[in-house]
Design goal:
796 residues; alpha+beta; Agglutinin, subunit A; Hepatocyte Growth Factor; Phosphorylase Kinase, domain 1; 7-stranded mixed beta sheet; 46 strands
Length: 796
């Protein structure tokens, strides 16, 4: 047998590396895998397990992992502990010094195997699903069984100090908040932790009771999932404490695994090895019996999020639900926290503002701040109603407990006989409707003419000052190449930009060879530049030199973007200002623009569209109200919204932006923008404000809800749907919002949010600019922080 292994190793070392990427058995040094759909993984000899990259849908990112290779249902049992999924083109190499070395397409190290104390000679994936790195004398240097994630496989051992950590959600492999730990005292416990960086845990909600302080030999010291599929704690005296049922289906006929699921339940699963394809994983055993009640710590949120209510489904899994008057804080996370759909206030008459939702057999056992005993149900409701800090009252056994928001550890518990009186908004009276004719800072009419004169003078002086500064810098850049440049505007901020020569950018883009897109002011190319001794992929925007006022647009964009910094804006890295050549160098957005993503056959999910809408709103709010120099974008449309590697929205293309000083609110300009997104005031040859961006955002928001373009050919969709803003408004008036989302099941199950988004969009496209909200208000309404009133019909 030893001779066979030796011969196999020699044979392996003489085969080309790519043979092992597509074969089974020993993996020699230098072997590589690439994160693409076409790369063949490394298999175990039996072919039961595979090691390699799995694409995470619906993104184009990949996870380095081990999975069952012979079953249809994709089941990952281990994954590299990276901070996030890796981009396509990332590579993994088997290195003698580092073991497994995972790098990005740009060569940045993303993850390595830790604790390698000797040179690695080869690796292999065992038939048990354990990936092993071995030295020249076959000593195991590292193995995936010793570095588990959320799953144990038969023959795997969990030592003292080791743990399993749940995923954040079913499809999100980042670290969750549930932990299975083998403690020094011999106990196996399930715990929660709100923040991964915390050293202490919020609550232990299951324990194996295998600790004996009086006699250490009776205490446990490891958890074993044996080759027969039995899970138990092994004590120091070699006795065992059985965890799983003693009778388990045969491991030779079934795949078995123990997984700490993202919902916090530890479960033993089985899957028939010779399945015809119609089978699925079935639960054989799980703990705890009722996680809704067992999680009961003073810290943390409970089994579900804050203000949520946990109940068990037919399979003993936790089901989380927001009570009436509340909705999910993150619509994509049904196990997350719930936020009130109203703002609780201490002003006004509580009888006019609030009513109660009665919830029998529901309990939020924490957050008490006052108890009243004896009390009647009527007195309990009245006490909470008249206390502006009271979010709900719980009545049980003639005692009333008043509780403040947020509420934690919510659960259904029929054994207590409780009744919850949850305070909710009585209607739309709790937030007064905004005055459509007033801005955030109302100015008396008699001061407006004085302020206008001052603003005009300040604008003229500032423009001249800015022109002189930019002209001086342009002259300076001609003689100083590749230097750090500092642009300032009234001393309000600084930005570090790199100055490139035209030749450098021509080489970086391989002669402007790979075109990414075209806009009104130029063409964008993909390139690679050296920054901080690293090659960085960039997007180079080459401004059209024959366009009128190209110089002015260039200076405007450099000055504006150089001072901006926000996670929903594309970052400007540098520029070229050399003779007739004017180019801008941006960070590269690998997932293209929103138009390509939204108007495709494979449409983004509803939760993705919500995330994008919020990102664009926050970015615009920053441009309008928070950045050093107020900016009107003037051309908000899907083509100018780029998507980063996490599909977060990033506003781009400030070539049409108009700069305003903080004491300026309007500017005269020619019509700018794109048909279908242009606000009506452009056509009236009147002054425009940041409200033109609000209008364009309203159109964009309608596109995100419906996955339809703002303008379509009537022959394609019918005359009534050709103009999106009119069709959406008609659907809202006719109470047929379901027509907007079609057969999108996720959106149909979230119609309250759909309605909120549509109402916000209609407010944004009002013809009168005074009726349109600010982008700050838009963001708050989309987030559910501010109430949205029914908008008026936007067309006169």
């Amino acid at each position: 047998m030893a001779l066979y292994a030796f011969c196999l190793l020699l044979f392996a070392l003489h085969l080309p590396f790519h043979s092992y990427a597509q074969g089974r058995g020993t993996i020699p040094l230098g072997s590589t895998l690439t994160a693409t759909n076409g790369t063949y993984p490394w298999h175990s000899l039996s072919g039961d397990f595979a090691f390699g990259f799995q694409q995470l849908q619906p993104t184009n990112h990949f996870l380095l992992c081990i999975w069952y290779a012979k079953i249809i249902e994709p089941t990952i049992v281990w994954h590299a502990n990276t901070t996030s999924p890796v981009p396509p083109g990332s590579t993994l190499q088997l290195s003698a010094q580092l073991g497994l070395d995972l790098r990005s397409p740009q060569g940045e190290r993303l993850w390595i195997t830790n604790g390698i104390v000797d040179k690695v000679l080869y690796a292999y994936l065992s038939d048990e699903g354990n990936f092993v790195l071995a030295s020249s004398n076959s000593t195991m240097l590292w193995d995936s069984f010793g570095d588990p994630t959320d799953t144990l496989l038969p023959t795997q051992i969990l030592e003292i100090g080791s743990m399993l950590i749940s995923r954040a959600s079913g499809g999100n492999f980042s670290q969750g908040r549930f932990y299975l730990r083998m403690l020094d005292d011999g106990n196996l416990v399930l715990s929660t932790k709100s923040v991964p960086a915390n050293t202490d845990y919020d609550d232990d909600y299951f324990t194996s009771l295998t600790s004996d302080p009086a006699n250490e030999s009776n205490s446990g010291f490891r958890v074993i999932f044996d080759d027969k599929g039995s899970l138990y704690v092994l004590k120091r005296n070699n006795e065992t404490a059985q965890l799983s049922p003693p009778s388990i289906p045969s491991a030779s006929e079934n795949y078995l695994r123990v997984t700490l699921d993202f919902d916090g339940v530890l479960t033993l699963y089985r899957y028939p090895r010779n399945s015809s394809g119609s089978q699925t994983w079935t639960s054989l055993w799980s703990v705890p019996d009722n996680i809704c009640i067992e999680i009961d710590g003073f810290l943390g949120t409970g089994a579900c999020g804050l203000n949520s209510v946990c109940s068990l489904d037919a399979y003993k899994r936790p089901s989380c639900q927001c009570p009436q008057g509340y909705s999910l804080l993150d619509p994509s996370d049904k196990y997350g926290s719930c936020k009130p759909n109203f703002v609780q206030t201490c002003e006004g008459s509580p009888e006019n503002l609030y009513s109660f939702v009665e919830l029998p057999d529901v309990d939020w056992p924490k957050s008490d701040f006052e108890a009243i005993s004896p009390s009647t149900k009527e007195d309990c409701q009245k006490a909470c109603l008249n206390d502006c800090f009271c979010g709900c009252a719980i009545y049980r056994n003639i005692t009333c407990w008043k509780k403040k928001l947020p509420l934690s550890n919510g659960r259904v518990d029929t054994s207590l006989g409780t009744t919850v009186y949850l305070k909710v908004s009585k209607g739309d009276n709790n937030i007064p409707p905004p005055n459509p004719n007033a801005s955030n800072n109302e100015i008396p009419e008699r001061q407006k003419h004085q302020i206008s004169l001052i603003a005009l003078l300040a604008s003229s002086l500032s423009a001249n000052f800015l022109f002189i500064i930019v002209g001086f810098l342009g002259f300076f850049f001609v003689y100083r190449k590749k230097m750090k440049t500092f642009l300032s505007n009234n001393h309000s901020g600084e930005s570090n930009l790199l100055s490139f020569s035209y030749k450098e950018l021509e080489e970086a883009t391989e002669g402007f060879n790979q075109e990414l897109g075209r806009g009104s002011f130029g063409i964008v190319y993909k390139g690679s530049v050296q920054m901080d001794s690293k090659a960085i992929i960039v997007a180079v925007k080459k401004l059209d030199s024959v366009v009128h006022d190209a110089d002015k647009e260039f200076q405007t964009e450099v000055a504006a973007i150089g001072l901006t910094h926000h996670k929903n804006l594309v970052r400007l890295l540098g520029f070229c200002n050399e003779g007739k050549h004017r180019l801008l160098v941006y960070e590269f957005m690998c997932n293209g623009n929103l138009a390509e993503f939204l108007f495709n056959d494979l449409k983004p999910s509803w939760s993705q569209r919500i995330k994008i809408a919020l990102g664009v709103a926050r970015g615009l709010a920053y441009l309008h109200e928070e950045c050093p120099t107020q900016i009107i974008h003037c051309d908000i449309k899907p083509q100018n919204i780029l998507l980063d590697d996490c599909y977060s929205a990033r506003i781009s293309d400030f070539g049409l932006a108009k700069l305003l000083k903080m004491n300026q609110s309007r500017t005269n300009t020619n019509i700018r923008g794109t048909k279908g997104y242009v606000a009506p005031e452009w056509f009236r040859n009147s002054q425009v404000t940041v409200k033109v961006d609000v209008y364009s955002f309203g159109v964009l928001l309608m596109e995100l809800v419906s996955c339809r373009r703002s303008l379509e050919e009537p022959e394609k969709c019918g005359a009534e749907k050709a103009v999106l803003t009119e069709w959406v408004t008609d659907c809202f008036e006719d109470r047929r919002l379901d027509l907007l989302v079609g057969n999108d099941a996720e959106a149909l199950n979230d119609m309250k949010v759909v309605e909120r988004f549509v109402m916000v969009a209609i407010w944004c496209i009002q013809e009168e600019t005074g009726l349109r909200p600010t982008m700050r208000s838009v963001t708050q309404m989309l987030e559910g922080v501010a109430q949205v009133h029914k908008p008026p019909y936007p067309y006169k």
